[in-house]
Amino acid sequence: MDSRDIRQSFIDYFRDRGHKPHPSAPLVPHGDPTLLFTNAGMVQFKNAFIGHEEPPAPRVVTAQKCLRVSGKHNDLESVGPSPRHHTFFEMLGNFSFGDYFKEGAIRFAWELVTEVWGLPVEHLYATVFHDDDDAYDLWKKLSGLPESRILRCGEKDNFWAMGDVGPCGPCSELHIDLQPDRPAVDWEEGSESGRYLELWNLVFMQYDRNEAGELHPLPNPSIDTGAGLERLAAVLQGVSSNYDTDLFLPILEAAGTVAKVPYGSSVEQDVSLRVIADHLRSVTFLLADGVIPGNEGRSYVLRRILRRAVRHGMRLGLEEPFLHRLVPVLGEVMGDAYPELAATRDASVATIRTEEEKFLSTLAAGSRQVQEEIETARANGLEVLPGERAFWLYETHGLPVETIEEIAEEERMGFDREGFDEALRRQQERSRQSAGEGKKRLAALTRTVLEEGVEETRFEGYDHLALGGARVLRLAKEEGGRPLAAATLAAGESGVAVLDRTVFYAESGGQVADDGVITWPGGRARVTDVQKEAGVFLHLVRVEEGTLRQGETVDLQVAAGERLPTQRNHTATHLLHAALREELGEGVRQAGSLVAPDRLRFDFTFHRPVEAEELRRIEDRVNDWVLRAVPTHIQEMGYQEAVAAGAMALFGEKYGDVVRTVKVPGFSMELCGGCHVSNTGEIGLFVITAERGIASGVRRIEALTGHGAIARARQRDTGLAAVEEALGTTADRAVEEIESLKADLKERDKELSALRMKIVAGAAAADGEEGGPTEVDGIKVLVREVPPAPAGELRNMADTLRSKLGSGVVVIGTREDGKVSLVAAVTEDLTGRVKAGGLVRELAGIVGGGGGGRPDFAQAGGKDPDKLPEALEAVPDAVRKQLG
Ligand code: ATP
Ligand code: MG
Between the chain's N and C termini, which has fewer beta carbons within 10 Å? Predict the structure, then answer.
């Protein structure tokens, strides 16, 4: 059975038993700040388990993309050595939402494994949570397994939780003995060593764990199961490692060919090849789901995995970018099941390639920096590279800490890992405090409100900006740092309010939340943010007057002055998206967007800068649709129908069965829940203000519409009029005029510089004359204050004077705008006795600065112009000091 057959037979088995096949959710969980990546099949049904959302059906079956590289489930370190752990894997799962429970789950799993797939009963084991007698008895009854092969285990293995908070419950696992011919061993030992392989986990979803760690029973006991496709493939294909299956072999072979190290050459090299094959899958699937490499959060995880693969490539001797070359091989292996791979292939190849190139050059440059740091540390008598310095390298040069550590090791230098971690922790703390705090608190308040159960909010804001007679259903606020449900919010207090109906748009799809006010008899609150969770709108409010009470009837008013420009920007974003695809090709994919009242921003995948000429054509296309004044059509329809009609769905977005489509007939059609103008003519004018790269393979366009675009045009026009007046010419001749002025100025500068040199050189009169050199212990010393000049010219002056002197010491100084510069030059024959560097250092002290340089030439700066004469007078003494 190849992996396709296994995946399909799983789906078919459960479909035949009343389960609705449901697509895999993206790797980026939708609207869940507590979880970085989808790490199990149940993640997309989290809200259904806790009763906040309707499940797609009472029984569901999925093949889910999973990533375990962070948080509670992190297998990154196992990957490579472990034959059964991946960062990216597929989890096959059947789900029951309050339908069947333990008995059904155990019966199905056992029948599929032993009867459909024919795994030998005598090699199988089941585990249950230690006090779960129900599950124990069910296994005995349904499977007929002997008691010796039904084991009671503890919380670590048999209590499953997605993360620190959320649905969880006791579980029961099915294992297989991979070496049945050898004598049985102790359970602990067998599962640690991988001999007893966990195939399938049946989770009995019974609880919801809150922030305080308390378990609350779920409304309906449910079933969530997960079986790793890669492990099933290994067992059903009769091999002992997931990597020896059809899912991995083609990738390992291709990687082996690229590296000229065939898979199976040596244990160590095989580990590297496996890491590369594994990481290729994670990286490519993350890119396909719209994650882009970067320095924070999910983006940073992606970058780290990619770099880890590159480092393993280097261990195999690969010094050139190679990972991107393997992307098409992955497409061949998994493209059938995951069409997003084909759709994003070229962009992924380009992004990976750029990342690889950047990382390799970072490594090359960075390694030198590390060497220097190590030398400095050694010069200071240290045997360990200080963690602070390592952190500096990591932060400013983007070097992975592992690389710094490796180089230190090669240089036989210790590494202060603790110090590094400490510096990292401090920095993370700083950024957490600055950024995440507000959102986190809102998330906690949100949970408090949702935990109590509240009906979905009716959104009436598409057509109205004001609404009378809405009711306050729930309030929550922070007390003593803890989120609590509240009956009232008094004047001066902030909190979250849930209403039965609202006109305030909640931030989503890139469009910012509406601002505005809520009023009631004797009171007023300002709405500062609106978020949406499971259909409930959470208004972040600050009460300005009176007291807001649960049950109160209130009037709502959105700040219209902001909403209308937001609508212009949102529709313009759709037009821009369509124009980009027309101009640059269908490969352009939206990677993010911001729709605010005063600007719009659109991020998209594209492998090179967009040229000025292309930008102009894109702008023209959009304005063309604006000028045609086309009415927009907004309509709800079935998801399939919308996609069939050509609506663009965004990668990484989760859509329900019924979707809202926004159409500009003839030009653009997107699935979108945002606010739009009713006619493109309302946009007025569209101008692109900037285009730049924000990550490898991702570009950003910023633009303005309506009043913003007009204001910008006017501002530029006013500026240009002022230029015309100042230059006494017309705009079309202004550039020419400026060029000619600049050329004149350059010419004058040159003349001026020559004149200054002449004056300085001429004034260096002969010995004994006024302004000539004096003698210090038989050495000629020429000291002079010169007119202000650029640094290069000062050096020239000192040089000229030194050659005129033949043998001696020259010190010149100049001052200007609170700044002093000093230059010292010593002729070759005297550098053994007088050092220019030492000389300027001494003088710099007087003018309040510092400096240094070579024995024959040195420079210094200072902040105290009044002290320059004093410094120059001190030269003979300073020379004497050096001689002495
Ligand atoms: P293990 O103890 O082997 O790490 P787990 O208890 O973490 O597994 P679950 O969270 O119960 O696994 O996930 C359900 C199933 O998904 C497992 O039974 C296994 O088949 C598969 N699985 C889990 N983690 C991985 C992984 N990192 N790579 C491949 N398959 C995995
Ligand atoms: Mg695990």
Answer: C
List the one residue out of 334, 320, 377 whose CA is nearest residue 248: 334
The Cα-based distances of 202 to 125, 188, 717 in angstroms read 13, 20, 69
List the beta strands (DSSP E) in 357-405: 384-385
What is the C-alpha to C-alpha distance for residues 839 and 835, in angstroms, rounded to an integer?
A: 6
Calculate the alpha carbon distances from 127 to 40, 176, 554 in Å.
20, 11, 56
Ligand nearest to the CA of 82: 1
Output phi, psi for 260, to 5 deg.
55, 35
For residues 226 and 380, what is the distance between their CA atoms, to the nearest angstrom? 56
Ligand 1 centroid to Cα of residue 228, in Å, is: 6
Q: Measured between alpha carbons, how far is 104 from 224 in angstroms, rounded to an integer?
A: 12
What's the farthest any 2 CA atoms get from each other in the chain? Answer: 118
Rounded to whole angstroms, how far apart are CA atoms 476 and 540? 10
The pTM assigned to this predicted structure is 0.61
Q: 465 and 558 in contact (C-beta within 8 Å)?
A: yes
Any ligand 1 atom below 6 A from CB of 341: no
Backbone angles phi, psi at 452, to 5 degrees: -75, -10
* Ligand 1 proximity of 91 Cβ (cutoff 6 Å): yes
Tokens 């945002």: give the residue.
674
Tokens of 837: 């560097």
Residue 228 CB–ligand 1 contact under 6 Å: yes
**E strand spans, 107-232:** 124-129, 150-153, 159-161, 166-177, 196-209, 215-228
Angle, helices 836-846 vs 875-883, to 10°: value is: 140
* Identity at 27, one-letter amino acid code: L
Which of 668, 613, 658, 608 lies closest to 635 in space, CA to CA? Answer: 658
**CA atoms of 506 and 499, how far apart (whole Å):** 13
Query: Does ligand 1 have an atom closer than 6 angstroms to the CB of 200?
Result: yes
Distances (CA, A) of 588 to 31, 396, 605, 647: 24, 32, 5, 15
Which ligand sits closest to the CA of 198? 1
For 406, 692, 757, 775, 826, the CA distances from 859, given in Å and listed in that order, are: 39, 40, 18, 22, 12
- Give the closest residue to 618 by CA, choosing from 706, 715, 689: 689
Contact 552, 468 (CB under 8 A): no
Residue located nearest, by CA, to atom 16 of ligand 1? 228
What does DSSP say about strands 124-129 and 150-153: parallel, antiparallel, or unpaired? parallel
Question: What count of residues does the chain have?
Answer: 884
Is 248 touching ligand 1 by the criterion CB < 6 Å? no
Cα dist. 535→46, 458, 459, 464, 556 in Å? 14, 9, 9, 19, 19
- Compute the average pLDDT of residues 605-609: 88
pLDDT computed for residue 77 by the predictor: 84
- Ligand 2 centroid vs 367 CA: distance in angstroms? 35
Q: Between 434 and 705, name the one with better pLDDT.
A: 705
Residue 444 has pLDDT above 60, yes or no: yes
The pLDDT assigned to 446 comes to 77
Residue 82 Cα to ligand 2 midpoint, Å, equals: 11
d(CA 19, CA 16): 7
Contact 164, 61 (CB under 8 A): no
Ligand 1 atom nearest to CA at 232: 20
Name the residue at shortest CA distance from atom 9 of ligand 1.
201
What is each CA distance from 648 to 14, 149, 304, 632, 663, in whole angstroms?
31, 52, 31, 16, 10
Query: pLDDT value at position 459?
Result: 95
Query: How much is the pLDDT for 664?
Result: 95
Integer-rounded Cα Rg, in Å, for the chain is 36
**Whether 402 contacts 408, CB under 8 Å:** no
pLDDT for residue 495 is more than 80: yes
- Find out whether the beta carbon of 80 lies less than 6 Å from any atom of ligand 1: no
**Ligand approaching nearest to the C-alpha of 68:** 1
For residue range 9-39, what is the model confidence (pLDDT) as tens digits? 999 999 999 999 999 999 998 877 668 899 9
